[in-house]
Amino acid sequence: MTWLGGWLREIILVVLLAAFVEMLLPSKSMERYARLVLSLLVLLTMLSPIVSLLKGDAASELSVAMANQEKDGGLLAGAKQGDDSLQKILADGQMLAKGRQEQSLKLAADEIAGQMRDQITSETGVRGAQVTVKLGMGKAADATIGQDVPVISSVSVSLPSATGGATGTSSPTTTETTTAEPIVIPPVEEVQITVETTPDTEETGTAVGAESAAANGSNEADSNAADEADSIIKLLEQKWDLAPGVIQVQGKSSSDTKL
Amino acid sequence: MEIIQVVGIGLMSTILILILKEQKPLFAFLLATATGIMIFLFLMGKIGMILSTLERVAESSGMEMIYLKTVFKIIGISYIAEFGAQIVRDAGQEGIASKIELAGKVLIMVLAVPIISIIIETVMKLLPA
Fold first, then answer.
1. Residues B40 and B73 in one domain
2. Structural domain boundaries enclosing B91
3. Tens-digit pLDDT string for chain A (259 aa)
4. Closest to A50 (Cβ–Cβ): which among B47, B117, B126?
5. Which among A56, B23, B45, B107 has most CB atoms closer than 10 A?
6. C-beta atoms of B71 and A41 within 8 A
7. CA nearest to B64 within chain A
8. Does residue B112 contact residue B74 with C-beta atoms inside 8 Å?
9. Contact B114 A65 (CB under 8 A)
10. In what order do the strands lie in the sheet with A256-258?
11. What Cα–Cα distance (Å) separates residue A71 from each residue in A24, A84, A85, A93, B76?
12. Interchain contact A235–B (C-beta under 8 A)
């Protein structure tokens, strides 16, 4: 019932406005023409429920039409309008198509990611892996089709915390560059937690303890995580016919393993 | 009190124009034009006040702005066309004045084109094919 109230209100307002504006008009000669346009506006307002039923919002339709008319320029705008507007329409169309393609690529990427996750769970038994797939447009592999087709440009798998039984919370690494990391980061966290409750001496002690525990479990966890990542990469390569280097596996507690 | 000012300006300029007309008809025309523009500018503020009030009312009641915009365009076109036509008519060029009025009418009708097209499209859809 609210739309009826809004509709009635709009009609009343437009009629009032029209009556008022007729008073404002300067001369008799213009009055007939202005009255025609005003009465058309009233008619459109009365018809607006039907228009919105058949075509969509009447007011927005009207504003689009008005904007188009304004864009066509004034009296002296020349004849080259046609060319320009055709170019513009083509550009608009391309932009729309691009937007739609991006949307469909995103949908497809989500779908592929879901399937890959299911496969990883069923084949390797790793649960809760997060798969992110990026699709891009590229040439088809068989190259018989001239058009660009969607290809998987990158897959990144991030595994849940390592199943290798690492005892510490540190991150063992395969590369030499980040060996300082497990030593640096955990103590900072410990400091932040324990500063509030415990004195300084105790805090350093716990930090060192965590470090040594981490050092014990690091090697084992490292090899386990690497094996797991390898198996996932092989699986995805076989199933999805992907090039090496596309897949990237990250463990939550192990470093990046790239092919 | 403003109406007294307007009428005063009008009377004064009329007398001056009547005097000037004997000596220099061209200056008489210029004076008439200037007086017209002065009165028009004087009223501009008042018209703006009315229009802004209308706009505020329409905004607060949730009326579609495009309707209001169309109505304002009609008012603007008719005022400007009328004013220009009057000046030209004062100068004795009746032909050009009527052309200006014609242009005003046509431009007002152009405003009606999108509305008419929407209404006609709707009616055509209502009819059975």
1. no
2. 64-129
3. 788 888 888 888 888 888 888 887 877 778 888 888 889 888 988 888 888 888 777 778 788 888 887 777 655 555 555 556 788 888 889 999 988 888 888 888 888 888 888 888 888 777 777 888 878 777 655 555 556 677 777 888 887 765 444 444 444 444 444 444 455 455 555 555 544 444 444 444 444 444 444 445 556 666 777 777 788 778 777 877 777 777 777 765 444 444 4
4. B126
5. B107
6. yes
7. A59
8. no
9. yes
10. A130-139, A148-159, A247-251, A256-258
11. 28, 11, 10, 18, 19
12. no
DSSP A179: T
Helices (H), A125-199: 181-194
Picking from A29, A69, A76 by the largest number of B CB atoms within 10 A of its own CB, the best residue to mutate is A29
Contact assignment for A30 to B63 by CB distance below 8 Å: no
Cβ pair B122:A54 closer than 8 A:
yes
Measured between CB atoms, which of A9, A25, A40 is closest to B115? A40
Backbone angles phi, psi at A241, to 5 degrees: 60, 55
Among the listed residues A21, A126, A28, A134, the one whose alpha carbon sits nearest the alpha carbon of residue B82: A28
Q: Say whether B71 and A38 touch across the interface (CB within 8 A).
A: yes
Tell which of B53, B89, B107, B115 to mutate to test the A interface (max A CBs under 10 Å): B115
- Is residue B105 in a domain? yes
Neighbours of A220 (CB within 10 A): 15
* Chain B hits for A38, Cβ within 8 Å: 71, 74
Q: Does B66 touch chain A (CB under 8 A)?
A: yes
Q: Distance between CA A187 and CA A4 in Å, rounded?
A: 67
| Domain-embedded: residue B8 | yes
Is the minimum CB–CB distance between B40 and chain A shorter than 8 Å?
A: no
| DSSP annotation of B129 | -
Structural domain count, chain B: 2
How far is the alpha carbon of A63 from chain B, nearest alpha carbon, in Å? 6
Q: What string of pLDDT tens digits covers the 129 residues of chain B?
A: 889 999 999 999 999 999 998 998 889 989 988 998 899 889 888 888 988 988 888 888 877 788 888 888 888 898 889 889 988 988 888 999 999 999 999 998 888 888 888 888 888 888 876
The ranges assigned to domains in chain A are 2-62, 90-259
Residue of B nearest to A27 (CA): B82
Pair B126, B75 in one domain: yes
